[in-house]
Amino acid sequence: MPSVRLFRQWARAGSLVLCSAILAFGTAQASEDHLRSWKDGPTKKAIVEFVKTTTDKASPNFVPPGERVATFDNDGTLWSEQPMYVQALFAFDRVKALAPQHPEWRTQEPFASVLKGDLKGALAGGEKALLEIMMTTHAGMTTDEFQQIVKDWISTARNPVTKRPVLEMVYQPMVELLAYLRAHGYKTFIVSGGGIEFMRPWAEQAYGVPPEQVVGSSIRTKFELRDGKGLLVRLPELNFIDDREGKPVGINQHIGHRPIAAFGNSDGDRQMLEYATTGSGPRLGMLLLHDDAEREFAYGPANGLPDSHVGTFTQALYDEAKQRGWFVISMRDDWKQVFPSSKEQTAR
Amino acid sequence: MPSVRLFRQWARAGSLVLCSAILAFGTAQASEDHLRSWKDGPTKKAIVEFVKTTTDKASPNFVPPGERVATFDNDGTLWSEQPMYVQALFAFDRVKALAPQHPEWRTQEPFASVLKGDLKGALAGGEKALLEIMMTTHAGMTTDEFQQIVKDWISTARNPVTKRPVLEMVYQPMVELLAYLRAHGYKTFIVSGGGIEFMRPWAEQAYGVPPEQVVGSSIRTKFELRDGKGLLVRLPELNFIDDREGKPVGINQHIGHRPIAAFGNSDGDRQMLEYATTGSGPRLGMLLLHDDAEREFAYGPANGLPDSHVGTFTQALYDEAKQRGWFVISMRDDWKQVFPSSKEQTAR
Predict the structure, then answer these.
(1) Which of A168, A208, A204, A180 is closest to A340 using CA atoms?
(2) Three-class DSSP category at A30
């Protein structure tokens, strides 16, 4: 695996379009040119018109800055979630890293399968097995230690299919959209089923979203004094699942506003979009459809796409989107460019 | 009771120093003149020097803006908590408002005592009785409805001893301190044992702290669709107690940073200050001592002051403050002015 030093070099060199894009978009005068990775068409038009109507003081739809809250799912909405959630890759790597201290894992499921690289076997135990892996790999250390473990891991982690760094598989058009909204006085939040403490260490670098604007699932923590110093220990107990019905609950708990715009890509985001788009005044709901096998992955099963157990976008959700006036973003048709790499084949 | 209309007039008229102070301080060039209600002395000096050393790029103690996180307790730190917590007054008023729908309360404790105005009797049942009052008055409605109930109530609520509006019993020096920190790139958060949804409807007006920067205790909520519209129903079940050991936990959950400065006034804030002040780099911890019977209230029992069951500041906490280098703010000696009213006797 590449070293932390390599990550530092990579970050310093500024070779990643992403970093400079965030800086440029965050500070420059805002205009729709910021959405340069979006193709002209109804989706981009809807975004630009929504932002115009909510930020123009003369508009009947004007929304004061404090109420301009936009929420974004993470997995499959801001970065790739195939062939499986990045956090699951992290958990499996942690099992391997911790294995020398757990000789019993060589014969004990689900750990034995993880160590053999047999992911199907590891997941055969269903949710219970996955929860056991999560609790074993995500608890037992302080929050400061966990943050460092995540930072170290993410700096070298690669997608098992594309072999690209996972941090280079964020979606360039969504990074632009986040910056575009912020440039128009919006507060942007991540609201993910993923772990809140797994996302915070890198979300600001990747998306320009600071830790206090990340909402996610969590385990319990406990305050302790060690040698007079205060710290929080991560406990192997679930605290909150920020998915499906949990998303509006998490939004209310952390943000305290009903969002006026929400972006997702799967059935886990349905309630967040229902909550965001049924308040009074102007509302925007958008779902990203992964219909681009060439540049990323194609899965649904909505719209006749292949079924997926990761990030499922059902036909029922697709139908609800049409009925409620949510926009479906077609990765294939709406995006000029998918990832922030300059190696991208697509014209800009 | 005064009407909502009166509140609107009062808010519009701008007669409240508070509102204009927030606006002025939030936008003006930052300088220590902002702390005009603070007397010159070691406490004010410590604040100004801490802000200087953490925001001067040439200083070895420079802290980047994203890490400039300051947390404030609410009751007894930002506004008066005597003769009892404002939220308890709210709960008792709600019992009275709901009584016509609950004829059984006339004979059922703790409600019967509340309805007779016998607060000692109401609290005779201890925590269990208080919890019953809270759940009955704080649950059963939607979050939107509860927000409106709080807004309506707080616009007319008065302190039972001073008869002043509770919103005019915020501490002017602390409002100035919040604005002073924000003007220097700090993010200011409220971290209170009080209810998160009780504070959010007025915290921005009173302190310049938006809903997403308020952390507090909470009950559970549940997402529902009613006639196709998404809403959250407040359930009579505790979710989280943001007090004592809970404060660092709440800070980590909501903010995801260890604060570099923390402000409190009672034993409930001990762990928050321990957590904030034992990280690496520059740290500031301050506790407000209510030693001013003339202008507000005097209670401890620290420093020989009268004992109080509301907002207890024990001698043990006082001793820990001295040992850890936390500053104790003397309301009597450090503040020129306590409340934002122009009626204040004290010279400015």
Answers:
(1) A168
(2) coil
Residue A15 binned pLDDT confidence (cut-offs 50, 70, 90): very low
> Do A196 and A146 contact (CB within 8 A), yes or no?
no
* Identity at A37, one-letter amino acid code: S
Q: Cβ of B31 under 8 Å from any chain A Cβ?
A: no
**How many CA atoms within 13 Å lie on the side-chain side of B39?**
14
pLDDT tens readout for residues A263-309: 999 999 999 999 999 999 999 999 999 999 999 999 999 999 999 88
Q: Do B253 and A187 touch (CB under 8 A)?
A: no
DSSP code string of A191-208: EEEEEHHHHHHHHHHHHS
- Looking at chain A, the whole-number percentage of residues with pLDDT higher than 90 is 83
Do A230 and B254 make contact, defined as CB atoms within 8 angstroms? no
Query: Taking CB atoms and an 8 Å limit, are B196 and A256 in contact across chains?
Result: yes
Which residues make beta-bridge pairs with A262? Answer: A71, A285
Which of helix, strand or coil describes residue B235?
Answer: strand
Query: In Å, how far from its chain's centre is CA A7?
Result: 21
What CA–CA distance (Å, rounded) separates B154 from B148? 10
Q: How far apart are CA B161 and CA A4, in angstroms?
A: 61
Within 8 A by CB and 6+ apart from A297, the residues are A80, A82, A290
Contact in structure between B336 and B326 (CB atoms under 8 Å)? no
pLDDT at A3: 39
Query: Does the beta-carbon distance from A255 to B222 stay under 8 Å?
Result: no
DSSP letter (8 states) at residue B161: T
Q: How far is CA B207 from CA A255, B21, B182, B273, B286, in A?
A: 17, 10, 11, 21, 18
Answer for the pair A170, A52: CB distance below 8 angstroms, yes or no: no
Cis peptide bond upstream of A301, omega within 30: yes
Reported ipTM: the value is: 0.89
Compute the distance between CA of residue B166 and CA of residue B155 in angstroms, rounded to an integer: 9
A225 touches chain B (CB under 8 A): yes
Tell me how close the Cα of A35 comes to any Cα of chain B, in angstroms: 26
CA distance B145 to chain A (A): 13
Distance from CA of B283 to the nearest CA of A (A): 13
pLDDT tens, A78-94?
A: 999 999 999 999 999 99
| Contact yes or no for A275 and B230 at CB 8 A | yes
Cβ neighbours, 10 Å, residue B217: 22
Across the interface, do B143 and A252 touch by the CB < 8 Å criterion? yes
Confirm or reject contact between B66 and chain A (CB < 8 A). Answer: yes
Chain B interface test: which of A191, A232, A283 (most B C-beta within 10 Å):
A232
Asked if residue B281 lies in contact with residue B332, where contact means CB atoms within 8 angstroms, the answer is no
Q: Please check whether residue A310 is in contact with residue A322, taking contact to mean a CB–CB distance below 8 angstroms.
A: no
Number of residues assigned to chain B: 348
Q: Is the dihedral of CA B338, B341, B346, B348 positive or negative?
A: positive
Q: How far apart are CA A33 and CA A165, in angstroms?
A: 27
